[in-house]
Amino acid sequence: MSKVNLIDKLRNRGLISYITNEDNLNKLIENSSISLYCGFDPTDDSLHIGHLLPLIILKRFQMAGHKPIILIGGATSLIGDPSFKKKERIFNTNDNISKWTKKISKQISCFLDFNSESKSALLLNNNTWFKKINILSFLRDTGKYFTINKMINRAAIKKRIIRPDQGISFTEFSYNLLQAYDFFILNQKYQVELQIGGADQWGNISSGMHLIHKKSQKEVYGLTTPLLMQSNGMKFGKTESGTIWLDANKTSPYKFYQFWMNIEDSNVYYFLKMFTFIKITEINKREQENSFNNQIIKDKTFLAKSITSLVHGEEQLLAAERITSFLFCKNIDDIKESDLQQLRKDGIPSIQVYNIKDLQDALVLSSLSKSRTQAKNMIISNSISINTKRIRKNHIFNNNDKLFGKFTLLSRGKKHHSLLCW
To answer: Can the keyword Magnesium be found in this entry's annotation (predicted)?
Structure first.
């Protein structure tokens, strides 16, 4: 990718929400290689899909010859970013933050190149400098550049202040200064000229630019990505329900794959532009062809495969495809025991069974039926399958029904499944 018009390319793919002084930033990245950074607070043991867009932008900048820096918020995570949160975060212990930092750092290392000479990605932790700071010096040398008037008028803060049931603590209120100081330190020590983040970080990013201008008289830049929103209007975040994690132990690769397979059709080409690295001309061509040939499932599958491979790798993508084929295409030949373990974890409902009388009993225990009478009618109507094979009469389970001696897939129709774990 050429450095020229990189910002235009990002915008054309829907990756930019806000940007400062675009003309000057364009000239800067056209004529030189820059260092840029994005911060991630380890407030849990995994990143989630809401973090993907900043990581993809870092990757695109690195592909264009620039140096990405990841800043782990070992110090700021002790405080918690209040930006657009409805209530104060639960404070985390130093031990947890230390463990989570290692896990998140490992996740991030899969997205960027840390061995490419001058543009190698760099991983830092802001606890390195905050643990040395004297509170009085910080208030005197940094706090004096910020007025309470401006700070309380930031949208993220104002929303909390006007809520008498919540309000905002001084602890959270100070977070803005801490992130601003991060940008200042990175500019001083690593010549970072651009900070990126989600759209909810705009206030924190602009505070960093303000501090650098006041203390060093330098121009630096900020760029934010759109926030990924759930169908209920809530952003994808660690504290909201329905979180899709990047850690395979929290969200299995199969469930991750199925998330993208089940997005609304209207988002497919939008997400192809944002999350994949295929040329935008090809995406536009796919979208145009879909209007004539209705190939939305084909393109949705391509999206799911691309993002699953990016996050989990080819091996786990193949596992997700095998499970999908097993459940929806009735292909049992290629399924592996590890695939069924994925299904058991969070792919479909499962029950531990020891002694089941018959198929009717299993249907009731698995909640696929409300009663034995209803189960009997389902079987007679040819809507029940065991390991993808239709069953037309009541059935007594035997060892041949147990895949790998452990699992039996019980299905009602095409979409309702339960995994019996013997």
So the answer is: no
In order of 107, 223, 309, 318, 417, the CA distances from 263 in angstroms are: 24, 27, 17, 20, 20
* Residue 232 banded pLDDT, cuts 50, 70, 90: low
Do 361 and 303 share a structural domain? no
Q: Of the residues 3, 67, 89, 255, which is catalytic?
A: 89
Residues shown for the chain: 422
User: Residue positions in the annotated binding site?
Assistant: 37, 175, 179, 238
Query: Do 372 and 328 belong together in one domain?
Result: no
Pick the catalytic residue from 20, 43, 142, 342: 43
User: Is 235 a catalytic site residue?
Assistant: yes
The predicted structure's pLDDT at residue 228: 77
Q: Are residues 180 and 91 part of one domain?
A: yes
Q: How far apart are CA 137 and CA 125, in angstroms?
A: 21
Tokens standing for residue 30: 């056209």
Which CATH number does the domain housing residue 309 bear? 1.10.240.10
Annotation says 392 is catalytic = no
Q: Are 418 and 410 in contact (CB under 8 A)?
A: yes
Query: Of 298, 316, 347, which closes a domain?
Result: 347
Q: How is residue 346 annotated by DSSP?
A: I
pTM of the model: 0.85
Q: Count of domains in the chain?
A: 3
- Do 53 and 126 share a domain, yes or no? yes
